[in-house]
Amino acid sequence: MTESSQPHSSGSENIQLDLVLTARTLFGFFMTGLTGLFAAIAIIPLAAIIINVASQGLPLINLNLFTKLPPPPGLSGGGLGNAIVGTLIVLAVAVVISVPIGVLGAVWLSEFGRGSKIAYWVRFSANVLSGVPAIIAGLFSYTIVVMTMGTFSAFAGGVALAVVMLPIVMRTTEEGLVLVPEEVRLAALGLGATRFETVSRVVLPAALPSIATAVTLAVARAGGEAAPLLFTALNNNFWSTDLFRPISTLSVQVYFFAIIPYKPQQELAWAGALVLLSIILIVSIGSRLVTRKKRY
Q1: 215 and 95 Cβ atoms separated by less than 8 Å
Q2: How far apart are CA 199 and CA 181, in angstroms?
Q3: Minimal CA–CA distance to 290: which of 172, 151, 157?
Q4: Among 118, 109, 235, which residue's Cα sits nearest to residue 178?
Q5: pTM for this structure?
Q6: Per-residue pLDDT for 20 more than 80?
Q7: What residues contact 212, with CB distance under 8 A and at least 6 apart?
Q8: H-helix or E-strand containing 261?
Q9: Of 45, 59, 145, 200, whose CB is crowded by the most CB atoms within 10 A?
Q10: Are the beta carbons of 160 and 141 closer than 8 angstroms?
Q11: How far is the C-alpha of 135 from the C-alpha of 126, rounded, in Å?
């Protein structure tokens, strides 16, 4: 009786196990499809923005756009050459200010101050700063730089964008440094290297892709900001490479041209938006290509 009931019981258990596995498999397929659907939905706004800006801006992409000054209101022709140059200058100032401070701050947080209360508050402050609206950074730079110097300038715009970039550079670089295996540090120390040599010759080179990602992400974020530049760099309708004079930038020029009731300027705004979007996309793609080469 017992021997005859065991195969029957084992067969029932196998059937139940198969049903459970089938249900789990179906649920896994369902959840995979559902998450894939929502991932695709999340990409739709980006694709819609790119298609819309490209369709509106591509007809005006020509040499004049990069070499000519903006036309007077109501007239056609011209370009955004001064705004493109001004954007590169302001971003260069912001990078020079924010990258050394952000990278060295991240090195201290991850290598020398790890676990301390000061590191906790520095990290907390960086997180709070990353959530501060960019226009507040513009007001800060206006108070510190513009009111002190008595004039709007490219330097003031760079300071405002540096404030926006700083927490991104610091926190992303710190995450990259933390990902370097602890065994690498111990191996360097075991070979007789000092703590400074370990950090400067082993840890930092290993984290270079992450540092490059931090810088490019910060540049991409700052490059599209217009609000802080309205209070600092202001605008300039002429060619200018002077750090201590008002300067034109793409984001501000696009903002001004988009709100005036003249079609030629509105078309230039679309072209400027496409150039700005292209710069950000190129920087973002470049950062991804850099991070593909991981040492550890």
Answers
A1: yes
A2: 12
A3: 172
A4: 109
A5: 0.82
A6: no
A7: 287, 290, 291
A8: none
A9: 145
A10: yes
A11: 17
pLDDT of residue 11: 66
Kindly report the number of other CB atoms within 10 A of residue 130's CB atom.
14
CA–chain centroid gap for 27, Å, is: 36
Distances (CA, A) of 223 to 75, 114, 294: 28, 32, 27
DSSP state of 70: P
Cβ-based burial of 35 (10 A; exposed 0-12, middle 13-18, buried ≥19) = exposed
Give CA–CA dist 41/60, Å, rounded.
Answer: 30
For residue range 99-156, what is the model confidence (pLDDT) as tens digits?
999 999 999 999 888 888 999 999 999 989 988 888 999 999 999 999 999 999 999 9
CB 198 within 8 A of CB 163: no
- C-alpha 76/C-alpha 38 separation (Å) is 43
Give the other-Cβ count within 10 Å of 44's Cβ: 9
Task: Name the residue type at position 295.
Answer: R
Which of these, 50, 171, 46, lies nearest to 102 by C-alpha position? 171
CA-based max dimension of the chain: 102
The pair of three-digit structure tokens given for residue 264, joined into one six-digit string: 């030629």
Length of the chain: 296
For 33, 96, 126, 167, 175, the CA distances from 121, given in Å and listed in that order, are: 42, 25, 8, 13, 17
Instruction: Measure the CA–CA gap between 295 and 36, rounded to whole angstroms.
Output: 31
Provide the CA 55 distance to its chain's centre, in angstroms.
Answer: 25
